[in-house]
Write a structure and sequence with these properties.
four-stranded antiparallel sheet; 33% helix; two-stranded antiparallel sheet; Enolase-like, domain 1; alpha+beta; globular; single chain
Length: 210
């Protein structure tokens, strides 16, 4: 489909805020556990399940797959790598996700090697992320912003973490910005990259109470 502009509200079609103000909270509380799939050591909600659940709650929801105005392709490029742009409209509000076209290691694929299949897979993943921005399955994306560390990796590929080192300062910022997740979820997410000892878990708990 051709590029579409973001939905603009006018005095005659503005949503009833008294009814829609809490739509994000309602979508965020939709149970997705039974639909969760596993890939490697990560949990994810497929775009098809996310879309079905969103449309069940909001039948008027729309997806917009943007195309480059210069090439007409359903992806964009800077000449080196590529990315897609997908918007999801719920209650007249559009959230847009930009996602690089990546390989199975989550590395950007060089522009000259990108295939239509790569783009299609990226669009579907971007669809799930844009839906999550409205609340549905958002918790599954927590951890994408966990800071990388420059500390040497241990044999199990996780990073050694000590309070007070460079990595700890980054983790502090992450914990303070995600207090709503609770101690167990935060430790689970951090544990994908770092070795979390009982003493560090106690320190994280203190940060959540601060």
């Amino acid at each position: 489909m051709r590029p579409s502009k973001s939905v603009k509200q006018t005095p005659t079609n503005q949503p009833d805020m008294s009814e829609n103000a809490n739509y994000f909270s309602k979508l965020a509380s939709v149970p997705v556990r039974e639909k969760i799939e596993r890939k490697g050591n990560l949990d994810y909600l497929s775009w098809a399940n996310a879309w079905a659940m969103l449309k069940s709650a909001h039948p008027d929801a729309q997806r917009i797959v943007y195309e480059s105005p210069f090439t007409g392709n359903n992806y964009f490029t800077d000449g080196k790598t590529c990315y897609v742009k997908v918007g999801i409209v719920v209650n007249g509000l559009e959230h847009i996700d930009y996602l690089p076209v990546m390989d199975f290691r989550n590395n950007a694929i060089p522009a000259e090697k990108v295939t239509s299949m790569d783009v299609n897979k990226t669009i579907q993943r971007s669809t799930a992320k844009a839906i999550a921005m409205h609340g549905l399955g958002l918790s599954l994306w927590t951890g994408e912003d966990i800071p990388e560390s420059t500390a040497p990796a241990q044999s199990d590929s996780r990073i050694s973490l000590e309070k007070g080192d460079e990595s700890w300062s980054k983790v502090e910022t992450y914990v303070r910005g995600n207090k709503q997740l609770g101690i167990e979820k935060i430790v689970q997410q951090l544990g994908r990259k770092y070795t979390i000892t009982d003493s560090l878990k106690s320190e994280i708990a203190k940060l959540l109470k601060a």
